[in-house]
Amino acid sequence: MTPAARVQAAIEILDEVIEAAKREGAPADRIIADYFKQRRYAGSKDRRAVRELVYSAIRICGEMPQCGRAAMLAFAEQDASLPALFDGSTHAPAPIGKSEQAAKPGVAPDWLVERLVAASIAGDELAALMGRAPLDVRVNALKSDRSTVDLPEAGETLAAPQALRFDGGTQVEQWPAWRDGLIEVQDHGSQLVCQALGASPGETVIDLCAGAGGKSLALAAAMDNRGRIIASDVDKRRLGNLPPRAERAGAAVIEPLLLDPGKELEALSDVAGAADLVLVDAPCSGTGTWRRKPEAKWRLTPERLAKFAQTQDNLLDIAAQLVKPGGRIGFVTCSLLDEEGAARIDAFLARHAGWSAEAPALPLGRQYGKGTRLTPFHDGTDGFFVAMLHSAC
Ligand SMILES: C[S@@+](CC[C@H](N)C(=O)[O-])C[C@H]1O[C@@H](n2cnc3c(N)ncnc32)[C@H](O)[C@@H]1O
């Protein structure tokens, strides 16, 4: 593909990304993969270059642009090599019209920027949400150790006990150590959050929103494969990814459990009032993960945000019924909005007498409200809010 054809391809992909954002369709990653599945002539260099153009344009536009071309024109205003490629030749974008409008640059839609600023995410903190994420792995302590694991690259040693950092895009899934379950891909912030939960061998733990089990696997390692981890979720597809991952990791204490939405407590009745720890890694807007999915900023609406908060309250109320007297709930979101962090803890404490909240002390992060917050700018991690809720004995 010529450089100009790559720009045109990126414009076409951006059109699809914008449409998908409007109707909660596929994420940008999948759209790019599907685009190239139908264009086998594109080589790996073309794919990389187009992908880079697409993500750069998404990062530069605050509000959702009218169309892919407007987004690419916004990027062209910042990258001097691009305008000349709009030359109208075969497969190239049409020349830039004199009165043609580029999309407005910014970090996120205005209403979201307002909410983030209200949550003390402004200036460099705000800009860092549109940065690029590195690739972090957790060395699986059930099978290996950070000091001895044999990897093709050394990696940077991070604060979490088994964390190593590599350049974004490092293909660790092709390494024998990944295939053998010696390492797992897990953001450093997510590893620190798991550390905050203080899970210890022999405990009964419920990972209520386990998804594909990223945190369950870290908990199994922290518990040295002793005790019980019930990994539940309402999403069959996501939960279906957990058994092969657990097998690869040698995590024998994880019990996947599919839940019926609205009937969560029925499926968990045998452990109701018996868990030492319930992890509520709740569904959220994902504002803390925009470095990986920048287009998520266009998908969120005030109504969707309110719905997330409602779901989070509901899941916390379920968790309160699962914890034994003296037990604890770990509330986690990968969001930096107050509505999905500090405010949820305040609301929980107002609904549940006899509970107390604690901001976990971590090697990184800062106290925020009654919890601890990790941010891309301050901590170099995805953005997270984590708080521990303790029930009375
Ligand atoms: C942030 S993700 C969890 C990520 C996962 N813990 C990890 O570390 O990879 C939130 C999960 O909550 C699940 N979920 C949504 N509603 C739920 C409910 N009522 N009960 C349990 N899980 C639910 C979603 O299907 C999603 O997998």
From TrEMBL:
Gene3D superfamilies: Vaccinia Virus protein VP39. Residues 102-392 form the SAM-dependent MTase RsmB/NOP-type domain. InterPro entries: MeTrfase_RsmB-F_NOP2_cat (IPR049560), MeTrfase_RsmB-F_NOP2_dom (IPR001678), RCMT (IPR023267), SAM-dependent_MTases_sf (IPR029063). The active site is at C334. It holds the Pfam family Methyltr_RsmB-F. PROSITE patterns: SAM_MT_RSMB_NOP. SUPFAM superfamilies: S-adenosyl-L-methionine-dependent methyltransferases (SSF53335). Keywords: Methyltransferase, RNA-binding, S-adenosyl-L-methionine, Transferase. S-adenosyl-L-methionine binds at D233, D260, D281. GO terms for biological process: RNA methylation. One of its GO terms (molecular function) is RNA methyltransferase activity. The keyword Lipid metabolism does not apply. It comes from the Bacteria. Belongs to the class I-like SAM-binding methyltransferase superfamily. RsmB/NOP family. PANTHER family: NOP2 YEAST -RELATED NOL1/NOP2/FMU SUN DOMAIN-CONTAINING, RIBOSOMAL RNA SMALL SUBUNIT METHYLTRANSFERASE B-RELATED. This is 16S rRNA (Cytosine967-C5)-methyltransferase. It comes from Altererythrobacter xiamenensis.
